[in-house]
Amino acid sequence: MTSPQSQPDDLYNEAVAAHGPALSRLARGYEINAEDCRDLLQEIHLALWRSFRTFDARCSLRTWVYRVAHNAAASHILRSRRMKSKTMISLEEIEEQGGIAAKDNTGQSIEQGQLLERLFALIQCLNPLDRQVILLYLEGMDAASIGEVTGITSSYAATKIHRIKTILANRFRNGGNHDKR
Amino acid sequence: MTNDNSTHELLNLWQSQEPQATSMSAKELRDASSKLEKRVFWRNSREYLGAAIVVASFGYYLYKFESALLRAGSALTIAGALFVAMYLYRKGAAETMAAGQQSNSCMEFYRMELVRQRDLLLSVWKWYLMPFVPGLGLFLLGMLQMVLRQPAAHLHYGVVALWFGFSFAFCAGIFAGVEWLNRKAAKALQKEIDALDQLHQTPEKTLDSPAL
Questions:
Q1: ipTM attached to this prediction
Q2: Which residue of chain A is at minimal alpha-carbon distance from B197?
Q3: Contact A176/A110 with Cβ under 8 angstroms?
Q4: Left if phi > 0, otherwise alpha if psi is -120 to 50, otherwise beta: which for A152?
Q5: I need a labelling partner for B148 at 20 to 30 A (CA). Which of A44, A137, B54, B200 fits?
Q6: How far apart are CA A18 and CA B204, in angstroms?
Q7: Running DSSP on this structure, what letter comes out for residue A89?
Q8: What pTM does this model have?
Q9: Which residues lie across from A89 on neighbouring strands?
Q10: Beta-carbon separation of B22 and A20 below 8 A
């Protein structure tokens, strides 16, 4: 016989087995500082573990995991934003600045570490909704899945993905080591 | 290199990052849960301690002073502090219930959080400032009355008026400053709520009619 506790625990174990590394990357997308990132990751795992007490299977496990994780992270940055008075912008605003940023990249190839650093810097300045979209996109999700997690329509998610691709191409067009090949 | 190639390689780079700890054991989760509860407990304790200090100080004035105005002011300030403590206690319970909304879609959840914070900021004057206004007002009047009853008071009316005016302006200034800052922060949150509503076309209360 299974104890009442075992089902949430089993679901949690199943979720982290499938999405644990993605949750770790998600936490980094919200908190660049190692210590803050570790705290956030712990908050996410805790929220996830607690959430399975009410898991009703109305959506897939993956959607549930990403919703809970991003919501925990959004609460976290809302709290820290009030403390640190951070300013966040949208993908549209970044796209408008695209030309200026692209100039910085011309004529030199970027190491993979630097590339990731730049990617994190880009993610860090985004408002929560756009940050959720770009992080889900980087995990390889399509517009429909992103829409399901975030609550925006899939056509709007597709528009956002298009913007993300343009921004990434502009900002990182000289890529990493692969450019040398 | 094409845009698609470049973004595809970025995706690969992103997904190949070395993960941190990818899971937590049942013990770690229970420890983290109790750490979180302790943090909430200590945060609330600080507020309750503040209320206890107010109750103790004004309890002493209530006992010490004979003036009806000072005693009424002290009693009302104590009542105000108890009201704030009770409100915080009830708000803590409501926050625990809100944790059950974590599986909503991200936009729904984020909007809910923004609305909650906006309403909290807009209601600060109601539950955190207003309860102290009658008590502190009466207490200040009581102090003024006490000073004016001193034998040599008529020689120093100017100083007394200045002191009272300064004390009143200081209290009013702090209250008004807190309220102004909160309104400013609430307006910024309202802008974000409006932007989210434009995406979803769901009508929401504006700053003029908040759900308090």
A1: 0.76
A2: A152
A3: yes
A4: beta
A5: B54
A6: 38
A7: B
A8: 0.72
A9: A126
A10: yes
Could you read off the pLDDT of A14-61 as tens digits, one per residue? Answer: 998 999 899 999 998 988 888 888 888 988 998 898 888 888 888 899
Structure tokens given for B51 = 């209320």
CA atoms of A137 and A24, how far apart (whole Å): 15
Strand ranges inside chain A, DSSP E: none
A46–B contact, CB cutoff 8 A: yes
Q: Which three-class secondary structure state does DSSP give residue B153?
A: helix
The DSSP call for residue A87 is -
Q: Tell me, what amino acid is at B141?
A: L
Task: Tell me how many degrees the CA angle B9-A154-A49 measures, rounded to the nearest 5.
Answer: 80
**DSSP label of A126:** B
The tokens for B8 are 């595809």
Neighbours of B209 (CB within 10 A): 8
- What's the CATH number for A6-84? 1.10.1740.10
Q: Across the interface, which of A54, A68, A169 has its CB nearest the CB of B7?
A: A169
Of A51, A119, A148, the CB nearest to B10: A119
| Cα B151 → chain centroid | 44
CB A64 within 8 A of CB A17: no
Q: Do A24 and B99 touch (CB under 8 A)?
A: no
**Paired residues of A126 in beta bridges:** A89
Classify the phi-psi angles of A89: left when phi > 0, otherwise alpha if psi is within -120 to 50, otherwise beta. Answer: beta
Buried b (16+ CB within 10 A) or exposed e, B148-178: eeeeeeeeeeeebeeebeeeeeebeeebeee
Each domain of chain A, given as residue ranges in start order, spans 6-84, 91-180
Tens of pLDDT, residue by residue over B98-120, are 556 777 888 888 888 888 888 88
Q: How confident is the model at residue B11 (pLDDT cuts 50, 70, 90)?
A: confident
Pull the structure tokens for residue A5: 């506790």
